[in-house]
């Protein structure tokens, strides 16, 4: 088999695709000590995480860095969250860090990673389990705190984008010891009574402790078993929770969830206007075609002078009828002549014609024609057919020899 030859870019792109599809390398948390920390004029942060066994290059882009709640420094023990992939230009892998926390909450991250690994192995994150969102949801259920700013943001966006949808609020606590049970119960309740076409489950941003209810196993399993499509909308864009991995769709923020849940009425109106315009154009073309066809009909001789047109058609029909009759008569005459000719030929070949000229046909008892004296013997009965009947006779003698000599007898 011929070995495939790849370019450096192809190799890097292939490795990048493998890493981007690896569930372990997306949404992970890495513990380590910061070193070589640099902030560039672009606002991007570059650093290395190290421990006693190795080092990992990291980058945090400006959009994520501005959300940091502390100033990273060399020597700090931190937990960095993000994904690992390849930078194609260098062919080097690195951690694309989206959030960072001091290592004081390391136990929570360890629990997060442990539960994530467990549920992933059980198939709760499987893409084939994801349900599509309804394109035009009639009712949206929102499971969140009734007092949070996230709810008001979602309601405002839903009313603006798609006022036709109804909103059903299922208020729950979103942090604290009772929050996971309430969230899971609300999901199960909405699913059991089919209260909505789509559910949004989430809350606004906060610390990892504030968001921890959405990392609870009972919440994850409630989302997984829900037959209604679920959008997870927890915290801000860098925040990842177990609920995000289980849900049918992850939204970066609650506001983004509202945008993803419904179509934009302005875009729908433009689509409807375009469709209406296209239908009007198609109808106008059909009307114009019908008008042109009607004009052709009205300009035709049949419409301008129907009597003259009818008389012309009648004359044409009479002419065709006359030609048809003449053709039939001619064909019949030719057929008759051909018949008479063939009949005359058949009559000329008839045995009766030969008999009328004085010849006879001799047959033995088995009705076989006697062509030679060797076919009969003395006392055989024979039949002699002449032109006007049959003679029954008995052979008295049968002698061989010609009955005439060539040139001495006339037929």
UniProtKB/TrEMBL annotation:
Residues 6-100 form the OB-fold nucleic acid binding domain. InterPro entries: Exonuc_VII_L, Exonuc_VII_lsu_C, OB-fold_nuc-bd_dom. One of its GO terms (molecular function) is exodeoxyribonuclease VII activity. Residues 124-338 form the Exonuclease VII large subunit C-terminal domain. Its EC number is 3.1.11.6. It comes from the Bacteria. It catalyses: Exonucleolytic cleavage in either 5'- to 3'- or 3'- to 5'-direction to yield nucleoside 5'-phosphates. Keywords: Cytoplasm, Exonuclease, Hydrolase, Nuclease. Its main location: cytoplasm. GO terms for biological process: DNA catabolic process. It is found in: Cytoplasm. GO terms for cellular component: cytoplasm; exodeoxyribonuclease VII complex. It is an enzyme of class 3 (hydrolase). Bidirectionally degrades single-stranded DNA into large acid-insoluble oligonucleotides, which are then degraded further into small acid-soluble oligonucleotides. Heterooligomer composed of large and small subunits. Belongs to the XseA family. This is Exodeoxyribonuclease 7 large subunit. The gene is xseA.
